[in-house]
Amino acid sequence: MSTLTIEATRSGLVESFHTVSVAVVDTEGTLVAQAGDPHRVTYWRSAAKPFQTMPMVRDGAAEHYGFGARELALACGSHSSEPMHRALAASMLRACGCEEHQLACGPHPPLSQAVADEAMRAGVILTPRWSNCSGKHAGLLALARHHGWDTQGYERAGHPVQERVLDEVMRWTGQSRDALKLGVDGCRAVCFGLSLRAMATAYARLGVSPEPAARQLREAMVTHPELVAGTGRPCTDLMAAARGAVVAKVGAEGVYCAAIPEVGLGLALKVEDGDGRCSPPALLAVLRQVGEQRGLSLPVAELRQHAEPVLRTTRGEPIGELRATGALRFH
Amino acid sequence: MSTLTIEATRSGLVESFHTVSVAVVDTEGTLVAQAGDPHRVTYWRSAAKPFQTMPMVRDGAAEHYGFGARELALACGSHSSEPMHRALAASMLRACGCEEHQLACGPHPPLSQAVADEAMRAGVILTPRWSNCSGKHAGLLALARHHGWDTQGYERAGHPVQERVLDEVMRWTGQSRDALKLGVDGCRAVCFGLSLRAMATAYARLGVSPEPAARQLREAMVTHPELVAGTGRPCTDLMAAARGAVVAKVGAEGVYCAAIPEVGLGLALKVEDGDGRCSPPALLAVLRQVGEQRGLSLPVAELRQHAEPVLRTTRGEPIGELRATGALRFH
Fold this sequence. Notes:
The structure is a homodimer. Chain A has helices at 49-58, 61-64, 69-75, 83-95, 113-121, 134-147, 160-173, 196-208, 212-223, 225-228, 234-242, 279-294, 304-307, and strands at 4-10, 13-25, 31-35, 41-43, 181-184, 190-195, 247-251, 255-260, 265-271, 310-312, 318-325, 329-330. Chain A is α+β, with helices and mostly antiparallel strands. Chain A has one domain: Beta-lactamase (3-Layer(aba) Sandwich). Chain A is globular, with a radius of gyration of 19 Å. In chain A, 59% of the residues are buried.
C-alpha cells in the first residue's frame, strides 16, 4: 500500500508522525492516484461549504439579495474573523432581513491567533458572526428567506434548507441518501460522512462544471481567496499564488479538498488523526506529486511556509519542521 | 501486533483515530505488557522532569535552599501558571539568589485555558516564570548555584548542569550516553530521545527505589499533585484520586509515563501523532488494563472526564468523545 506521512522533527529526530489517506479522481470518480485508504469514510466538515452554498446560488437567493463574488467566497470559506469577514457576514444578514442572533453557529476563538489575541486583549465578547462559519450560515439563512421557509432550525437535519443542501451534496458526490452519514458539525449545521473518493469526485466536477452556479462559486473562491480563509492562511495563500489553477478548501479534523480544473482532477485527503497543522503540508505534497506527474506548474515551491512549517521553541528559535514523506500511487 | 487506539467520534461515526505505542516494564526493564511498538524512540520531554530534578535533591541543593515537598513537586511538574505556581517558582528563584530573567524558558500561553484567558483579558505580559517548566528551570539554576557553576547557559548540552542531568538520566533509564539522542525542548533545555521501554524502566525504578532522593520526589508528586499540573488537569486529578498508588507525569507531543509502586511496574506511552488530547485517555486505558490483570484497585472509573473526554459543538452540546479501543498484550 502506498503511504503518505507527515513527520514532525525535533533536533533531527522524528518525534511524531501523522498518516494521511488520499484520493485523487477524475470527474467520473475514477481513482487516478491514492495513498493510504482512498475509500476512508469521514466527515467532510467545512470542505463541503461550496456545496452547502450551491443551493443559494442555483435557487436565485444570491442574485435576489445582491450577493456577488465576495459574499459567495465568504459563504464557501472558513474565515479568520478579521474585521472584513465580520463586516461582510453582518451585511449578508442585513441583506436578507436577518439578525445575528438567528445564526445557529456558536462563537469560538478566531482561527487567526493574532485576531484571537487582539479580541481577548480588547475584552470583546465573541458573538456568532465571529464564527469562521458565519458566511455559510448567513447564506443558509438567505436561502430560507428566499424560499419563504421558517428560519428557525435551519441548521438541523430535516429542515427544508438542509434537505435542499443534502440534494446538492448527493448530486455532486454521486452518493445516495443512504450512503451519506449525517452528523452535527461544530457549528451545529448538518455535516456529511462520506468517502474521500466521493469528496474528491465533487471537487473534480466543481472545477470544470459548465453550470453557472459552479462557475460562479469557483471563480468567487479564486478571485477572493482572502475571504475563503484569511491573512497568511493556507487556502488563501495557495489560491492567491495559483491564480485559478487550484480551488482549495480546508475542513476540520485534518481534511483538505481541492480541484485542479486544467486536468479535470479533484482530490481529498484526511490526516487520519485529525491534526489541522498537518493537512496543509499534506495538500501541498499531493499537489506537487500530481503536478509533476501531469506536467503542471502548481505553486508549491513558493509556499514553503505551509509545505514545511517550522516548529519553534518558546523563544522562537527553529527546532524542527513538519515534512511530508512517501509517494502517491498513480494508476 | 497488539494495538491501542484512541478514536474521536462525532454523531456516532469515528471521525479521526490515534495510534498509541505502549511499554509496561518491571524494574529490570523486562516487558510485561505492550501495544504498538514498545521500542519506539521519541523524546521524553516533560515526562523526564523527575529525573532532571533528581540531581538537585541528590547533590544537596534542595536541602541547602530549603526546598520541601512543594518545591520538589513544582520542579517535577508542568504547571498551569496558576498564581500558586508562579509564586512558588518565584520563591525558588529568590531562595537560590537568582532572578526571573535568568530562566532560559520562554513564556507561552498557560496550559490552563482559564488562566490563559484571564491573563489575556488582564493584559498581562507573559514572562518566563509563567512557563509550565519554570519550576524545573528554577531547580536547575539552584543546582548550578549550589555547585558554584556559572548559571549562564545552564539549559544547553555540555553545561555542567546538563552533564549532571544526563548522568542521572543514564542511571535511571539504563541507557548509555551513545544510546541517548539529545535534542532541544520547547523550553530550550536539553531533552532526551530514547525508547518507551527505557522511559518505562526509569519510572518502574522511581516508583520503588529505596534511595532517599527518589522517595522524596515521588512522595512530593503524590502529596502535592496540584503543583505537578493544576486545577482539573489529568496528572493532578489522577494522583489525587490514586492516593499514592500511581506516580504520573505527562510529556509534550503525546507522551505519558507512570509508576505503579505496589507492583513495581513502570509504563510509558506515546500517541504516535503527538496529540496531547489523547494521552490521558490512553494512560487511563493502560492503567485500567494493568489494574485488571494484576487485581489492583486503580482510580479509573471515577476519572471519566479524562478517560472519555466529551467533544462539543461551539455552543457546548455534546457531539462525540475520545475513547480507547484495543488491548495490551501481556507477556
